[in-house]
Design a protein that fits this description.
The protein contains 20 helices and 21 strands. The chain is α+β, with helices and mostly antiparallel strands. Strands 12-13-14-15-16-5-17-18 form an 8-stranded mixed beta sheet, with helices on both faces. It has a 7-stranded mixed beta sheet with strand order 3-4-2-1-21-19-20. Strand 13 and strand 14 form a beta hairpin. It catalyses: an N-terminal L-alpha-aminoacyl-[protein] + L-arginyl-tRNA(Arg) = an N-terminal L-arginyl-L-aminoacyl-[protein] + tRNA(Arg) + H(+).
């Protein structure tokens, strides 16, 4: 009789775990409790990043959608939710309704720049051009190639001009390095460098004792101006020292400071070119090593390697250096959507991206770590099969491939769920950084949601992952407007315009406490500061330091230490979420292939085991919610 009862309970429970009987599979998870790790955002040094974790053997798209709407995310098959009151960098789920999206001027410029590149009308100075067919019969650029690329110029580019383009590229690489290290923001497009020759007659006029000054660049003035314009566009107010400091854009990034930062990064050129590089009044100046050395002599002395002129120096690169795009050369753009699976070409691109953009060492970028992070997924695939509520591609985990002239240039790792497209990660060809592929892919993903909403009406939203206000390099996500953040207590969505002043004051805020109606706005703003001082005084932290986070990166592959659970519900990190009744009797338990409600299983445990298990179940129920605890299978083995 007992075995028969177990089978009956398992049968009834199994049907309830399949998302309302829609034959979408079942979710089976293992609760790993509280996890501590070093933070990939603030780099605080300790294990200050605190989250609740689940390993998912399988996960329905409906359940994952519900988990997203409670602040969860996934990395491979691992699900995690920050314990917002305790973690060093509170992470708020951010989304926007695709149909309401209003692109900014900068986002429109990104689209136009890509279109010009595809049309062949974009002037790209000495960029690593990956679209040309490889020519194995030539090891470097010939004069005929150069003449074609100069679009109308009939004379061969001389060595001095080549060298100036080479220096421009080095400055642009230094800008990218400073973006990666957090010295410059990653959410705006910075101008490209240009180099000018300094005429002998003007050298003494510019700098005393500068007879050996050969080249100069004013890029620092342009970068400083771009930063200031971005701040004004972002806030629609006059830039002030206080507001700049709060929003990750330091007013002290004057042309002089920018020039100093770039010069320090460019010091490696001293050995490779024989030039000396110094910052002077905001300019970046290049001097010959010999006094009175003529320009031609310096150019002859400097040895520009074939690698410098024709490739990126990264294994697997198929780049060529060109002076500018040939006029009228159109490129073919393709966007392919494929289910998540291992692809050697994608892995090769990912490896180049991680090494060049994130400075990973080759032994850190392994095939197995790539698979765990970006290929493996617990989501149960749901095909369309003519179902009007499912898009033609189905629901599940996908890789969106960006190809130009048949070559893979970017891959977006995404989950397509009943209500949204959830963006997980993007990696791209480092040689095409000037195209801002991160921004461009976000625009494409938003457009995909708009297009497919007609086929799947419930698919309305674009989820950008976590918004971390205390990490300025993650604030770019709020540039996709109008966005909203998820309240960590009541799981209500709050417009970002309301949340921004709150998060300027405290990193952790119960956002739904400040939801307002239009006619209440004035009163709310007057009482905002007083209310903020009453909330969580012990969590008043300053903004965290910038770190190396790609504009599409969520969390690096998780490297957690052992669980740090404490007994009792008060220690779970979810003490603020007391709105749920915490009843665990209907929690669905998986044990030796059976599916049972806890109330039907508890008699099988002794008093000590039962107390321990109920403590774990209370913590789990608070984390995933009472309804999901009744539907997902809590596996005990």
């Amino acid at each position: 009789m007992a075995e028969k009862k177990i089978r009956n309970d398992a049968s009834s429970s199994g049907s309830s775990s399949s998302s309302g009987g829609n034959n979408r599979g079942e979710s089976v998870v293992v609760d790993v409790g509280r996890r501590r790790s070093s933070c990939g955002y603030c780099r605080s040094g300790g294990h200050n990043s605190i989250s609740h974790g689940l390993w998912a053997h399988s996960l329905t798209v409906d359940h994952y959608q519900a988990l997203l709407d409670r602040g969860w995310r996934r990395s491979g098959c691992f699900l995690y939710k920050p314990e917002m009151e305790k973690t060093c960098c509170p992470s708020y789920t951010i989304r926007l309704k695709a149909s309401d999206f209003a692109p900014s001027n900068e986002q429109l410029r990104v689209s136009k720049r890509m279109q010009r590149f595809l049309d062949g009308t974009l002037d790209v100075k000495m960029r690593d051009e990956v679209m040309d067919e490889p020519d194995t019969s030539k090891s470097q650029i010939t004069s005929s190639e150069v003449r074609e690329s100069l679009a109308g110029k009939n004379e061969e580019m001389n060595k001095a001009e080549q060298f100036m383009h080479y220096l421009s590229d080095k400055i642009d690489n230094a800008v990218l390095a400073l973006i990666g290290s957090g010295n410059f923001p990653c959410d705006i497009q910075l101008p490209k460098a240009s180099i000018k020759k300094v005429a002998p007659s003007k050298r003494k006029l510019l700098v005393e004792g500068s007879e050996d000054l050969l080249f100069s660049s004013n890029i620092s003035f342009q970068i400083a101006a771009a930063l200031m314009r971005a701040e004004k566009d972002k806030h629609d107010i006059k830039l002030s020292r206080d507001s700049a400091g709060k929003n990750g854009l330091c007013l002290e990034l004057s042309p002089n400071i920018v020039a100093e930062k770039l010069t320090n990064t460019l010091n490696q050129l001293v050995e490779s070119t024989g030039l000396s590089i110094r910052a002077c009044n905001g300019h970046i100046n290049f001097y010959s090593a010999k006094k009175q050395a003529g320009l031609d002599e310096v150019v002859q002395i400097v040895s520009i390697s074939k690698e410098s002129l024709t490739g990126s120096g990264i294994p697997g690169s198929f780049s060529k250096k060109i002076s500018e795009c040939p006029q009228g050369k159109r490129r073919r753009f393709e966007l392919r959507l494929k289910r998540s699976s291992f692809d050697p070409e994608e892995y090769a691109l990912y490896r180049r991206y991680q090494i060049k953009v994130h400075n990973d060492t080759p032994d850190q970028v392994t095939e197995s770590s790539y698979k765990r992070f970006l290929v493996e997924s617990p989501l149960v695939y749901i095909p369309s099969t003519g179902n009007a509520t499912v898009p033609p591609c189905g629901f599940g985990s996908f890789h969106q491939q960006y190809l130009i002239d048949g070559r893979l240039v970017a891959v977006g790792v995404i989950d397509i769920l009943p209500k949204c497209l959830s963006s997980k990660y993007l990696f791209w060809d480092p040689d095409l950084a000037f195209l801002s592929l991160g921004k461009y892919s976000a625009l494409q993903e938003i457009a995909w949601v708009k297009e497919n909403q007609h086929k799947s009406p419930s698919l309305e939203y674009y989820y950008l992952g976590y918004y971390i206000h205390s990490c300025s390099k993650m604030r770019y996500k709020a540039a996709y407007r109008p966005s909203e953040l998820l309240c960590p207590l009541r799981y209500q969505w709050v417009p970002f315009e309301i949340t921004r002043p709150l998060l300027d004051k405290k990193p952790y805020v119960i956002l739904s406490d400040f939801t307002i109606l239009p006619n209440e706005e004035s009163l709310a703003l007057n009482t905002l500061e007083n209310n903020m001082e009453l909330q969580h005084d012990d969590l008043g932290q300053e903004d965290m330091n910038d770190i190396l986070i790609d504009e599409d990166e969520e969390m690096a592959e998780l490297d957690f230490e052992d669980s740090d659970d404490e007994s009792g519900p008060e220690s779970s990190g979810f003490t603020s979420v007391q709105l749920e009744d915490g009843n665990v009797s209907d929690t669905l338990i998986g044990l030796k292939g059976s599916r049972l409600r806890y109330k039907d299983l508890q008699h099988a445990f002794g008093p000590t085991e039962r107390r321990y298990l109920e403590t774990q179940l209370h913590r789990y129920t608070r984390a995933v919610g009472t309804e999901l605890s009744k539907q997902m299978v809590y596996s005990l083995g």
